[in-house]
Write a structure and sequence with these properties.
Number of helices: 8
CATH architecture: 4-Layer Sandwich
Oligomer: single chain
Order of helices and strands: EEEHEHHEHEEHEEEEEHEHHEEE
Radius of gyration: 18 Å
CATH class: Alpha Beta
Shape: globular
CATH topology: Metallo-beta-lactamase, Chain A
């Protein structure tokens, strides 16, 4: 089993060699789970020699466009292309209605036979917000994390703890710096993929690099950083991290039993 990002950039990346932060978990039998399907997904997949037909399931962490903006393309091409399969779609139960009603319905509801719904395009798996699901014999636990909080407005994102054969791997998804919440997950993980804002100052949606530098050294030593802005990056290795992930960089997770 292996894991790689098809892009490691922020929502607004324009870099020629990078795309939005979406990832792939690939089983030994070739089945692939796409973790988030943003606006750049089709071009990011193409850059790695992959297409819609190479993705068998999708997991959605939250509803920002750089994580769901490619689902219209994916759903339509899977529906209209002869011989294609209807992919599985995994997401937390509180995202299912808003994904269709607020993100996809306006462009996808009218079809050649009449009115469509989310299940027309995907085999939908609605997951408990503290639940889990199985992919290729590996359990993935949802990790509910705060992405945005401003007054009464809150947005949650669902990272994953991947129980890989070589040990647990934490993928945070987009989230604020919240060490009290994340520390048990950090300590349990063999490897960590951490959302990281590399802007000039901290914002209100992502963990900023300067804050992550305050984490204990033994946590940083198991942490890869992603979701970066275009331009020069800090020397993450010198600061005790494993580094910044590059698109297409492959991480081996061992063979599933």
């Amino acid at each position: 089993m292996r894991f790689y990002f098809i892009g490691t950039g922020s929502a607004f990346t324009l870099a020629d060699d990078n795309f939005q932060s979406n990832a792939v978990l690939e089983a030994d039998d070739g089945r692939r789970l796409l973790i988030d399907c943003g606006t750049d997904a089709r071009r990011a997949l193409k850059a790695l020699g992959l297409g819609r037909e190479d993705i068998h399931a999708i997991y959605i962490s939250h509803l920002h466009g750089d994580h769901v903006g490619g689902l219209e393309w994916f759903g339509f091409t899977s529906y209209f292309c002869p011989g294609s399969h209807r992919p599985e779609l995994f997401l937390a139960e509180d995202l299912v209605g808003p994904l269709w009603d607020n993100s996809l319905k306006a462009g996808m509801a009218a079809l050649d036979f009449g009115w469509a719904r989310l299940e027309t395009f995907f085999k939908v798996h609605s997951l408990a917000t503290t639940g889990s699901f199985d992919f290729a014999g590996v359990r993935l636990d949802l990790v509910r994390l705060l992405h945005i909080r401003s007054g009464e407005a809150e947005m949650w994102s669902y990272g994953l703890m991947i129980h890989a054969p070589t040990g647990p791997v934490l993928f945070t998804s987009d989230c604020l710096h919240q060490p009290d919440v994340l520390m048990p997950w950090y300590r349990a993980a063999r490897l960590i993929f951490q959302d990281c804002d590399t802007g000039s100052r901290p914002g209100g949606a992502h963990a900023h690099y300067s804050h992550l530098c305050s984490l204990p050294a033994e946590i940083r030593a198991r942490m890869w950083l992603y979701h970066v802005k275009d331009g020069p990056l800090p020397d993450a290795v010198a600061d005790g991290f494993l580094g910044f992930v590059r698109p297409g960089q492959v991480f081996e997770f061992g063979a599933a039993a």
